[in-house]
Amino acid sequence: MKALKILILVFFAGIMIYASSDLPFRGDPDNLMHAEESITGTTVKGSYFIQNAYRDARTPNMVTVVLGDYRSIDTFGEQVVIYTAGLITLLVLRRSKRRSE
Amino acid sequence: MNRQIDSPIVLLGARLLSPYIMLFGWYVIIHGHYSPGGGFQGGALLAASLLLIRVAGGSKLAELQIREFATTPLAVIGVVIYFATGLVAMMMGGHFLDYEALPIPGMEPAWLRYTGILIIEVGIGLAVMAILIMIYDNMVRGEDYA
Predict the structure, then answer these.
(1) DSSP β-bridge partners for residue A37
(2) Domain locations along chain B
(3) Cβ–Cβ of A56/B113 closer than 8 Å?
(4) How high is the ipTM of this complex?
(5) Where are the domains positioned within chain A?
């Protein structure tokens, strides 16, 4: 049974290593996701952000521009999720004074 | 939990490390425009610097730094900074969270967006810091030593 487990793990590790050999190199401008047109001929939406992020917000880090400006309502939602998690710990874990006495 | 001995060496190490972590947290928030980072990461670092003192020194020492009742209002202030930025932009005639409409005189629209991103990053950092401390305080209430 243990040999089977190890065999399965080695099999999946082999699949992962084989698949990772086919990944594109990081930062290569000829990658498909960096192209202006996809292979089906439609325009890639991300190329707008790459081309205009610095012109719109004067910020070299385009991840910050996408997070804070183009998709700022999504970031606001993330902050509200964290805030809700904090409030839930307040409600669940805080003992009332009556019970602690 | 009650039989722990507070060690001065651990406290000294935590006191040495904590201000530098806090400074790096502010650096990550403010420098998020130019390098990897931003409000969430910087807020987590700020919380780490405060929690280090709380873990090493106990709740009595931590009360000198940031009181327990102050964490919930700080979290609310962080969320309100973000929301108010969007609301002010909407009231001045733009869309919600459209920083071009912020009422700061003498700035071209691109630099207004730059400033708006900075404001909301500070709000996110404040909220994340306060909430992580709040979670820790609620979990160890009455159980930590010293």
Answers:
(1) A43
(2) 8-139
(3) yes
(4) 0.86
(5) 26-96
